[in-house]
Specification:
With 224 residues, the protein is of the alpha/beta class. The protein is built from 5 helices and 14 strands. The strands form 4 sheets. The protein has a 6-stranded mixed β-sheet with strand order 2-1-3-4-14-13. The chain has a 4-stranded antiparallel β-sheet with strand order 9-8-11-12, with no helix packed on it. The two termini are 21 Å apart. It binds glutamine.
């Protein structure tokens, strides 16, 4: 019997813009190659969950309206997500999901949506441009090509703790000024890349390997 890798997809029904749910499908395919089945649980409004029941947590992008709905629900999960991230467990957050790990997101409509405030960054809106188009950037795992579409501009409040996920070659990434894409902290990645990002096999394989390690750790912990 193949072992089952468990993935929590946060608010899958509300946050899955521009092909983001494809990230989870690509991971399931790569994990199958390594001999694992995959179970994906949609953790949505009102659901309780413990991150440590999972090997990987995924969070996709969302429109501002859906983000304002999710923001009211997600505070309940702050503690379990914080502990999971700080325990070096793997997590991938795209666009709106990425913004939610920070302190807040100011929308184009003038609303300030509170984030989980787990990591030291914030996201603001400026009227001059929406960041939309193809992106290309260099990461620790090689080049990534993707697509971005966001009005939020993300800035790190602690540049020692957080590292950019990539250096822009084409497109905006976090904001128009800094030439950085996304965020790395321990085994958590935040990124503005849709398309989905994991069509970039180099990144997908690196994350799949982290998920297998995380699964083995969880199995060892439950066996005790
Ligand atoms: N609504 C957010 C923004 O415009 C995130 C967009 C997204 O997740 N695609 O910045």
């Amino acid at each position: 019997m193949p072992e089952t890798i468990k993935i929590a997809y946060l608010y899958e029904d509300l946050m899955n813009t521009y092909g983001d749910s494809g990230d989870v499908k690509i991971l399931a395919f790569l994990l199958k190659e390594q001999g694992y089945d995959t179970q994906v649980d949609n953790i949505s409004l009102g659901d309780n969950f413990n991150t440590f029941d999972y090997d990987f947590v995924f969070w996709g992008g969302g429109q501002d309206f859906e983000q304002s709905v999710v923001a009211k629900d997600l505070v309940r999960h702050k503690d379990t997500i914080d502990k999971y991230i700080n325990a070096n467990k793997p997590m991938l957050c795209i666009c709106g999901g990425y913004q939610f790990l920070g302190a807040y997101y100011e929308t184009s409509g003038g609303e300030t949506i509170k984030g989980l405030d787990i990591l030291p960054f914030h996201t603001i809106f400026k009227a001059d441009s929406r960041m939309i188009g193809d992106t290309e950037y260099e990461t620790e795992w090689g080049k990534v090509r993707a697509f971005e579409n966001h009005s939020g501009r993300t800035y790190f409040d602690d540049k020692t703790m957080l590292k950019p996920f990539g250096k822009m070659i084409e497109g905006y990434g976090n904001n128009p000024e800094e030439g950085n894409e996304g965020m790395r902290y321990k085994n958590t990645i935040g990124s503005y890349s849709h398309g989905p990002i994991l069509k970039n096999e180099n990144v997908a394989r690196a994350i799949a390997d982290k998920i297998v390690i995380s699964h083995k750790e969880r199995m060892a912990a439950t066996a005790k």
